[in-house]
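Exam revision sheet. Question 4 asks you to relate a sequence to its structure. Input first:
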Amino acid sequence: MKITKDLGICMDHASAHIMELTIDPINTKNIVSKFTHQIKEDALEKSEKHMHNKEQHEPLEYDKEIASGIRNYDDVILFGPTDAKLELFNLLKADHLFANIKIEIKETDKMTENQEHAFVNEYFSKR
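Answer key, structure tokens:
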């Protein structure tokens, strides 16, 4: 019997909570985007072109950092209140390294850590 490896990721453009479904408690890792509001303001002061360059580069690094943790899992649920999950999903679908990983997206409201854990437990228990 194959042991499935399940992962829940609650994310927005600023941070991601990566939750590995294990026997209680759920292991959570936090990843924070380096593209903060302050960096955007500083880049905008230099020039609009510089700000747009930063705006394109920094989120890609954030998505790559999250993606690197997904490779070892069989089933992933991306959820959260913004389009960040959809942007990551599109990046993953374009990469053949993620072709054998089942990835789903769910729109949710902003949640507390306990609500996120309950959501991940409930999602994977329904399969």
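Marking note for examiners. The chain has four helices and five strands.
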